[in-house]
Write a structure and sequence with these properties.
single chain, alpha/beta, 8 strands, binds zinc ion
Length: 256
C-alpha cells in the first residue's frame, strides 16, 4: 500500500518521525508521498525525501497560504520542482472557502490566482497536481477547465459523486482519507462506491484525519492500512486486490 498524501515534515512528527516511518513500513506501507503546504515546508520535504528511499515529495502553496504569495514565488517553486528526482508533483494547491477568513471576494481572488499560476506551472513542467478543495468545488472545476489542466488528484475527497464525476472524465483521480471510515460519512462512502477502482488512490493526510479506530489521535502513515481495509470492503474486494490496483495507479500517477 502507498500513502499517497501525508505531511511528514509537519512539526507533529518532530519527536518520532523516524519511528513513524518505520511503523508504516512494518504495517505494509511500501512508499509515502510527503506533501508541502508552503515553499518553506517544501525545503523540509526535499530533505526528508533525500534521506529515505521510499519517500517522495510534492511542493506547492496551499490555499491557506495564498495571501503570503509574492510574485517571485513562482520562479522559486519552478527551481525547487526541478531540484530533485524525488519531487513528483505540484501540491498541495487549490481552493479552501471553509474558514471565515476566506469569505471575502479579495481572499477568494488571491486563492484563485495562486491556484491558477501553480496549475499552469504543473502543466508546463509535465508534472501532476495534488488538488485540495474545501467548499469550493464549482470554482475548482472552473479554473481547471479554464487552464485545461493536466492530470491531477482531488485529494481528501469529501464531495458528492455528482460533483466529482467530471474529474474522472478528464482522466484524473480521487483520493480518500480516514474521513471515509467515519460512520456519518454517507456521501463520501457513496462517492467511493461509484468511483471505479482504477481511478482512486488512498491516503492518510497525516497528522490529520486519523481513520477509525484511531479517530481523534494524531494520524500517521501506518494508518493508511485501516482506511484501505475499509474502502476495499466497501468495494467488495480483498485488501490484496485493492492494494494491487491502487498501488499501480499511484505509481503511474506520480511516476514513482
Ligand atoms: Zn488538503
Ligand atoms: Zn494535505
Amino acid at each position: 500500500m502507498i500513502d499517497s498524501h501525508c505531511h511528514l515534515a509537519d512539526k507533529a512528527f518532530d519527536a518520532d518521525r523516524m519511528q513513524a516511518i518505520a511503523r508504516a513500513k512494518n504495517a505494509g506501507v511500501s512508499a509515502m508521498v510527503t506533501i508541502a503546504d508552503t515553499l518553506r515546508e517544501g525545503e523540509k520535504c526535499l530533505e526528508l525525501s533525500a534521506k529515505y528511499d521510499d519517500l517522495y515529495c510534492t511542493i506547492g502553496v496551499h490555499p491557506h497560504h495564498a495571501k503570503e504569495w509574492v510574485e517571485g514565488d513562482i520562479e522559486t517553486l519552478r527551481t525547487m520542482l526541478g531540484s530533485s528526482p524525488k519531487v513528483k508533483a505540484v501540491g498541495e494547491i487549490g481552493l479552501d472557502y471553509h474558514y471565515p477568513s476566506a469569505s471575502s471576494g479579495q481572499a477568494r481572488a488571491e486563492q484563485k490566482e495562486v491556484f491558477r499560476a501553480q496549475l499552469l506551472l504543473a502543466k508546463e513542467l509535465g508534472l501532476p497536481a495534488v488538488v485540495h478543495c474545501r467548499e469550493a468545488i464549482a470554482d475548482v472545476r472552473m479554473i481547471i477547465e479554464e487552464v485545461d489542466a493536466g492530470p491531477f488528484v482531488l485529494h481528501c475527497c469529501t464531495e458528492k459523486w455528482d460533483d466529482v464525476e467530471w474529474i474522472l472524465d478528464r482522466g484524473s483521480l480521487l483520493s480518500f482519507t480516514g474521513i471515509a471510515t467515519f460512520q456519518n460519512s454517507v456521501e463520501v462512502q457513496e462517492t467511493l462506491r461509484n468511483c471505479p477502482l482504477e481511478s482512486m488512490m488512498i491516503e492518510t493526510d497525516a497528522p490529520y484525519l486519523a481513520p477509525i479506530p484511531h479517530r481523534g489521535k494524531r494520524c500517521e502513515p501506518a494508518y493508511v492500512m485501516d482506511t484501505a481495509r475499509f474502502v476495499a470492503a466497501e468495494k467488495g474486494l480483498s485488501l490484496q486486490q485493492f492494494d494491487q490496483v491502487t498501488t499501480k495507479t499511484t505509481v503511474a500517477f506520480f511516476g514513482l
